[in-house]
Design goal:
Length: 215
């Protein structure tokens, strides 16, 4: 059984607004992506990274696509030996070995996918284009979905074998596996497994990672 890490890192990081792509921005003394790569290297047989054009030097790097799931597909295509795929965004530096292992265990137990998720803490409402609230959802059944997302690799390959316009509309890979009829479950993640999206997220991540290194 080959467990392969698949890291989409080909985004430009528009909302972060740094001078280069987000995955390679410095965070607590190293490129943001390195925090995730270190953890994935400890649990995966191999890690393939989808990078922006110009960043493909080095082993196991492929050029990503225009949309995130296209980047995931490009990286997975470079890992034909994978039987389990651990997809993790370079933008989430708080990955832990324990969280990856809990997701992998669920896939080994027979699920097509197991995804890190946080129970909703805010009340969630649905609103129309004019802002009018249409309904309040039952928060107790709602989860905010993150990465890692771990899949039986063949289920993910099959889910990604769809036209580019379908991939362009997907905000995560699990939704594609669900659409293909696959079984996906949530795995509760530690509260700190946040994504770096805005400049304030990067500053917060830096503070936490430096404090952790100082312990
Ligand atoms: N990603 C990717 N290929 C793309 C778009 C995104 O590999 N075409 C990756 C990003 O590098 C990131 C992850 O998907 O690790 C999550 O995406 P997001 O946080 O949205 O990052 P960016 O797309 O880079 O940021 P923004 O949307 O602000 O431009
Ligand atoms: Mg994006």
């Amino acid at each position: 059984m080959a467990v392969v890490g698949i890291v989409p890192a080909a985004g430009s990081g528009e909302r972060l607004g740094a001078s280069g792509p987000k995955a390679f921005v410095a965070c607590a003394g190293r490129p943001l992506i390195d925090w995730s790569l270190e953890v994935l290297a400890a649990v995966c047989d191999r890690v393939v990274v989808a990078v922006p054009p110009g960043y493909e030097d080095g082993d196991d790097r492929v050029v990503g696509g225009r949309h995130r799931s296209q980047s995931v597909r490009a990286a997975l295509e470079a890992a034909p030996e994978a039987t389990v795929a651990v997809v993790h965004d370079a933008a989430r530096p708080f990955l832990t070995v324990a969280l990856v292992e809990r997701c992998v265990a669920q896939v080994r137990a027979g699920w097509d996918g197991a995804v890190a998720a946080a129970p909703m803490t805010d009340t969630v409402k649905e609103a129309g284009p004019d802002g009018r609230v249409l309904r309040t959802l039952d928060r107790s059944t709602l989860w905010a979905i993150q990465t890692p997302q771990v899949f039986a690799a063949d289920a993910l390959r099959q889910a990604l074998a769809v036209p580019d316009r379908v991939l362009a509309g997907a905000t995560d890979d699990a939704s594609l596996v669900e659409a293909a009829g696959g079984s996906v479950r949530v795995v509760e993640a530690p509260p700190e497994n946040v994504k770096v999206t805005w400049p304030a997220d990067l500053r917060a991540a830096e503070a936490v990672l430096r404090a952790r290194a100082a312990v």
